[in-house]
Specification:
The chain is α/β, with parallel strands linked by helices. The protein folds into two domains: 289 residues, HUPs (Rossmann fold, 3-Layer(aba) Sandwich); 149 residues, Isoleucyl-tRNA Synthetase, Domain 1. The protein is 48% helix and 13% strand. The protein contains 19 helices and 15 strands. The strands form four sheets. A six-stranded parallel beta sheet has the order 3-2-1-11-12-7, sandwiched between helices. Bound molecules: 5'-O-[(L-methionyl)-sulphamoyl]adenosine. The site of 5'-O-[(L-methionyl)-sulphamoyl]adenosine (MSP) has 21 residues, from helix 1, helix 7 and strand 11.
């Protein structure tokens, strides 16, 4: 039985266009999914759109459209972006898909029958932009939402509540006491800000607007958008549906590694309410929730409401999908907030993709072509000991980091190897070896470079998906299937005559 990996992104609100912040989460998920594919896992990668709620209803009204008309075009634009960014998702869920709506109704009924949901009245301040009832800590001195910086609504209506208060102990001593939420410091944030002060029952239906999934028992109520949204992670797999084979495989099986990604402002929903919903349904918990920071633009969160967004499509058109994937993977580690500006982007592109990687591949290709007519016969080659060991070490460090979802650290391992190769060229001065006609040493140098560039290229495969084939061709392995096993043990690798030199990652000025 192959190992299994299920990875999810949050489902995005189609209340505006997606920006770099959204592309961030999805790209991280894509890199990890592709890495697990390379490791022989059977994978399922879910993304989608969160289409109900007051905010969407308002946006559609403003545009003079029905919600469905409004959504069609937005969802198309999501898919266009994911295609341009080479996102290899397995399934795209829309919360307006009928299978999802029907399953949410069934889930609501189950929770009601099990006694986890009861009727009552709610009064409190609601942020439409975050689709969230706020507590005092989340409101600033001007009575605005601290996260979205928008005005709040006073909501006073009958509602159904989920008995989250029953799960105080479960949250403190199970969910947030183990390795589920990473990085670890986020656990303390959740415990101290939301769980320990006391878990209040969560309002899970609304009556003051209608763009949502009506509940069967009392159709003037629609399901709260977060109940509707969180459950997408299991409805998409077929939970409570005729064909639930994916659910059995990717959720119920305790051996499946389930990774969910979410930005810091929605960790609360994913690390408290979602585990409680799952527990109430008697279902297993995800293996990990990876909470990440925000991408800042001029030190504030990039967001539609602040108007400081960078359009990922524009970046892709200017620099290519790989350049953006690389920046996201390397320069924006998940543990903290990161900055995105054109200057930083170009600086990073030139330093790492153009100078380190691109240049290394191209100069090595040039030398092998010039000195050996494009083919190095490795029969009696002696590989450089130090660089060969570094290559092998790089693979194991990379695997360890990727297994811990530390993409940025894993990329740093590759770049270090690239720097070592570039330094090796300067030290060995192959052009002098050629002048001296020391062809046996020249061959050792070229073979050592070819070997380590092969390793680097394979490790970059989940990130540089557009350029991978070109890179592999330039190093002499066109159409050759590499694997971790092959690059570690260095067997079965048969080079062909090098492909033509192409400039990949041309310096930007
Ligand atoms: N619809 C909800 C999620 C429901 S999941 C069951 C939602 N949607 S969202 O479109 O507002 O945001 C989705 C994700 O994008 C969040 O993880 C959020 O953190 C991420 N980002 C939005 N702006 C961001 C940045 N500027 N930086 C990094 N990620 C940010 O919330």
């Amino acid at each position: 039985m192959p190992k299994k990996f299920y990875v999810t992104t949050p489902i995005y609100y189609p209340s505006g266009n997606l920006h770099i912040g959204h592309a961030y989460t999805t790209t991280l998920a894509d890199i990890l999914k592709r890495y697990k594919d390379m490791q022989g896992f059977e994978t399922f990668f879910l993304t989608g759109s969160d289409e109900h709620g007051q905010k969407i209803e308002q946006k559609a009204n403003e545009a003079g459209l029905s919600p469905m008309e409004y959504l069609e075009e937005k969802v198309e634009s999501f898919k266009t972006l994911w295609k341009a960014l080479k996102i290899d998702y397995t399934k795209f869920i829309r919360t307006t898909d009928s299978y999802h709506e029907e399953t949410v109704q069934k889930i609501f009924t189950m929770l009601l029958e099990k006694g986890f949901i009861y009727e009552g009245n709610y009064e409190g301040l609601y942020c439409v932009s975050c689709e969230e009832f706020l507590n005092a800590d989340q409101i600033d001195e001007n009575n605005m939402c601290k996260i979205s910086n928008t005005k709040l609504e006073l909501v006073k209506e009958e509602t159904y509540f989920l008995k989250t208060s029953l799960f105080q102990d479960f949250m403190e001593n199970e969910v947030l006491a183990n390795e589920f939420l990473i990085p670890a410091y986020r656990r303390n944030e959740m415990l101290n800000s939301f769980v320990k002060p006391e878990l209040k029952d969560l309002s899970v239906t609304r009556t003051s607007f209608s763009w949502g999934i009506p509940i069967k028992e009392n159709p003037k109520h629609v399901a709260y958008v977060w109940l509707d949204a969180l459950t997408n992670y299991i409805t998409a797999l077929g939970y409570l549906q005729n064909d639930d084979s994916n659910f059995k495989k990717f959720w119920e099986d305790e051996n499946t590694e389930i990774l969910q990604l979410a930005g810091k402002e929605i960790i609360r929903f994913h690390s408290i309410y979602w585990p409680i919903i799952l527990k109430s349904l008697d279902l297993r918990q995800p293996t990990h929730l990876l909470g990440h920071g925000w991408i800042l633009s001029k030190d504030t969160k990039m967001s539609k409401s602040l108007g400081n967004v960078i359009d990922p499509i524009e970046m892709i058109n200017n620099y290519g999908a790989d350049a953006l994937r690389f920046y996201i993977g390397y320069e924006l580690p998940t543990e903290k907030d990161g900055n995105f500006t054109d200057e930083l982007f170009i600086e990073s592109f030139n330093a790492h993709l153009a100078n380190n990687i691109g240049n290394l591949i191209s100069r090595t290709n040039q030398m092998i072509t010039k000195y050996f007519d494009g083919f190095v016969d490795t029969t009696d080659v002696q590989y450089d000991k130090e660089l060969t060991e570094k290559g092998i070490q790089t693979v194991s460090q990379y695997i360890k980091n990727m297994d811990e979802y530390k993409i940025s650290d894993a990329i740093r391992n590759i770049l270090d190897l690239g720097n070592a190769c570039n330094k090796y060229i300067e030290e060995k001065t192959p052009w002098n070896l050629a002048k001296e006609e020391n062809f046996s040493e020249l061959k050792n140098v070229m073979a050592t470079l070819q070997r380590n560039i092969t390793i680097m290229t394979y490790l970059l495969k989940p990130i540089l998906v557009e350029n991978y084939e070109d890179m592999i061709e330039q190093i002499g392995l066109k159409d050759f299937e590499l694997s971790f096993e092959k690059i570690i043990n260095w067997n079965e690798i048969v080079f062909k005559k090098l492909g033509d030199k192409k400039i990949i990652f041309k310096r930007v000025n």
